[in-house]
């Protein structure tokens, strides 16, 4: 059977081809009864729009690139951040009749591939996630005049709208809680210092210790569970008398709890532990983890809404979401 054409739809509905086209392309300048007739004809004939031809007319692909600056081994790992962002962004875009094109960009070769793909007009906009240091993509994509938004404040000075959470304020709240429950020697396992989240959470930790006349005790991890375990062992070796640790994400905190247990330190009796993110596993650690709730789903949804707003000429003002201290048994 031949594929139904737009001309056949127009004939069945008793309208011109131009009118049928306006209905198919979602334009609102068609009277409701005519629109209903065209939609009925589409349903009766089983008409499916030619997406390539439609893109030529609308100058839209209805596809959005979700670019993650991490290798696949990191994205598809135990870290729930990436799966939550991908799922939440995809659902929000689906409700807007758009689809996600997932792209990984962790090295120079993949950066060039992403740039070529986007410059080829295959997507209407770009969402950037997990950028490190002097990542070239934000600057490169901004020159292409494609709408771009970032999940998190960009680490490089580039004029790109972003959605972030209050990393500094959240860290301050977590460390202040440790001070208020009487802990004196408060260490931190910071996140990677080529990422804004790692920098900001370390800054929040240092702000509170400076104001409370306590010295900083710092080890650095890479937001993985293994790095948290290694960093905790390092801290215990550097200062066996520490009585609290603020960990820059929950996955590293899980590793830190393991190292504390292996070292014979009781949590929270000997060492209190506060994490950041409030991942699902934080409820089930031993003991359950006190942490800062980072609204990942809300942040991903807000990122999509910010990008869709740019398509309509909306403002590109930064969006900063609050964090919330969730007190459990570890502190």
UniProtKB/TrEMBL annotation:
It comes from the Bacteria. The keyword Transmembrane does not apply. Residues 4-58 form the HTH lacI-type domain. It holds the Pfam family Peripla_BP_3. CDD domains: HTH_LacI (cd01392), PBP1_LacI_sugar_binding-like (cd06267). Keywords: DNA-binding, Transcription, Transcription regulation. The keyword Nucleotide-binding does not apply. GO terms for molecular function: DNA-binding transcription factor activity; transcription cis-regulatory region binding. SMART domains: HTH_LACI (SM00354). PANTHER family: HTH-TYPE TRANSCRIPTIONAL REGULATOR GALS, LACI-RELATED TRANSCRIPTIONAL REPRESSOR. This is Transcriptional regulator, LacI family. It comes from Nonomuraea wenchangensis.
């Amino acid at each position: 059977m031949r594929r139904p054409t737009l001309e056949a739809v127009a004939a069945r509905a008793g309208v011109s081809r131009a009118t049928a086209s306006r209905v198919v392309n979602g334009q609102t300048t068609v009277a409701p009864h005519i629109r209903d007739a065209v939609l009925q004809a589409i349903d009766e004939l089983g008409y499916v729009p030619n997406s390539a031809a439609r893109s030529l007319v609308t100058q839209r692909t209805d596809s959005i690139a979700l670019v993650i600056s991490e290798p696949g081994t990191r994205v598809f790992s135990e870290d729930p951040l990436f799966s939550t962002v991908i799922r939440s962004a995809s659902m929000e875009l689906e409700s807007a009749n758009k689809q996600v094109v997932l792209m990984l960009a962790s090295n120079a070769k993949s950066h060039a591939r992403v740039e070529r793909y986007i410059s080829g007009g295959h997507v209407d906009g770009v969402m950037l996630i997990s950028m490190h240091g002097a990542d070239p993509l934000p600057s490169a994509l901004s020159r292409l005049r494609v709408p771009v938004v970032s999940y998190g404040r960009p680490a490089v000075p580039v004029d790109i709208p972003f959605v972030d959470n209050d990393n500094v304020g959240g860290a301050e709240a977590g460390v202040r809680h440790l001070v208020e429950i009487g802990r004196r020697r408060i260490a931190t396992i910071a996140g990677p210092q080529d990422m804004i989240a790692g920098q900001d959470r370390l800054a929040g930790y240092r702000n509170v210790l400076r104001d409370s006349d306590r010295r900083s005790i710092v080890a650095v991890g890479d937001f993985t569970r293994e790095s948290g375990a290694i960093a905790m062992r390092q801290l215990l070796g550097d200062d066996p008398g520490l009585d609290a640790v603020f960990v820059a994400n929950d996955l590293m905190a899980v590793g830190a709890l393991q190292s504390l247990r292996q070292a014979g330190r009781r949590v929270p009796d000997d060492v209190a532990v506060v994490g950041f993110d409030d991942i699902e596993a934080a409820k089930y650690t031993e003991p359950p983890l006190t942490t800062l709730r980072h609204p990942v789903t809300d942040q991903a949804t807000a990122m999509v809404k910010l990008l869709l707003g740019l398509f309509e000429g909306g403002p590109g003002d930064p969006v900063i979401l609050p964090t919330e201290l969730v007190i459990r048994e570890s502190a």
